Amino acid sequence: MAKAAKARNVIVRMISTAQTGFFYTTQRVRQGPKLSAVKYDPVVKAKVVFVESRKTRK
């Protein structure tokens, strides 16, 4: 039996560096660089840096 192909895109969780526990989920290309972005964190009501972490399955 052949191995299943991996998806081109992967779902990642963008976690707030303000340590609030707030996160966004997004997709990126599997072979691409790790994501980081400045986005709005409603817990602290300010724009903060969000960094990528793997989305874990339940």
Automatic annotation (TrEMBL):
GO terms for molecular function: structural constituent of ribosome. Gene3D superfamilies: Ribosomal protein L33 (2.20.28.120). Keywords: Mitochondrion, Ribonucleoprotein, Ribosomal protein. It is found in: Mitochondrion. InterPro entries: Mitoribosomal_protein_bL33, Ribosomal_bL33, Ribosomal_bL33_sf, Ribosomal_zn-bd. One of its GO terms (cellular component) is ribonucleoprotein complex. Belongs to the bacterial ribosomal protein bL33 family. This is Large ribosomal subunit protein bL33m. It comes from Hydnomerulius pinastri MD-312.
